[in-house]
Amino acid sequence: MTAGEREVExxxxxxxxxxxxxxxxxxxxxREPRTFFVGDAAADTWFxxxxxxxxxxxxxxxxRLCDQGRLRLDEEVLPGAQLxxxxxxxxxxxxxxxxxxxxxxxxxxxxxxxxxxxxFQTVLATPRQAAGERSLYSDLGFIALGDLVExxxxxxxxxxxxxxxxxxxxxxxxxxxxxxVELPPQHCxxxxxxxxxxxxxxxLVHDDTxxxxxxxxxxxxxxxxxxxxxxxxxxxxxCYHAVDSPSARALGLRQATVRRFFAVPGLPGxxxxxxxxxxxxxxxxxxxxxxxxxxxxxxxxxxxHLGFTGCSVWIDPVSRLxxxxxxxxxxxxxxxxxxxTKASLRALRPMLHDAIxxxxxx
Length: 362
What we know:
This protein is an alpha+beta fold. The protein has twelve helices and twelve strands. A five-stranded antiparallel β-sheet has the order 2-1-12-11-10, with helices on both faces.
């Protein structure tokens, strides 16, 4: 192990004290990542990757539908809002439902296809403001986007994603409540509900709204191993660089499509780091402290996404460097402790990504 790798591992292991009970990190530039496990995580541990679902399922499926001509970025998909506005969190939706909304609505008593459709209906009836004028990170926009993907793709999100990713044979997918899933719950890192009781969940999606949607939603619901997320990122990069690899052929996305979705944000009048389904590192400005979770050294052409449960993925399309951190920082007994782990993870991520860029293995 090089000195650079030791620094990365020490930072990851240091998070056990105040950030997460377990974590998995995969990083590198080539086919085979360097992977570390800490805490209770092992090679067979799957994590609830929360909002990484937005990028790795919903956005990916939108890419395919665009390639197939069943969606267009400039298409008006909601009154006054184009597809690109939903992808860039600028369709005018408020940030999210109030905490415990699904529980208060009684949708968690017996989640079903009916409760799933009720969520769609509620989201689509939510008043929107200033569509196309500002970017506000919103689960609601991606729930609406998931509904659109199901309409145009003519099947449920989990079925579409499974079909798309089947040739890649990845340890990544939804754990639908209404279907038999091969992944046993004991192989999933535990989380805790966002309720005062903080009951433990294992193999059930942490997000209440996604749970009311049978664990299959546009904003949350995916479970994965870190190496699977890494391999999917490298397959996307093969498409980005038009590399004729088995992974690129299996994914089947056009180079122009991936490059458009990875492009640095440039939507008119939207000063935001949000692009089309992916976030970008904050620009580096002289005299200002870097605030990006990607750190100060990661390419500003990079794309990525964070997940509420303690997960992230960052990709540099130029150098092909990828870093995937999966953790279960929400497996703590109080809401105060969960807020503390969020703050601690916010501090750890930039240091970890800077160490990965510096790592001597490159």
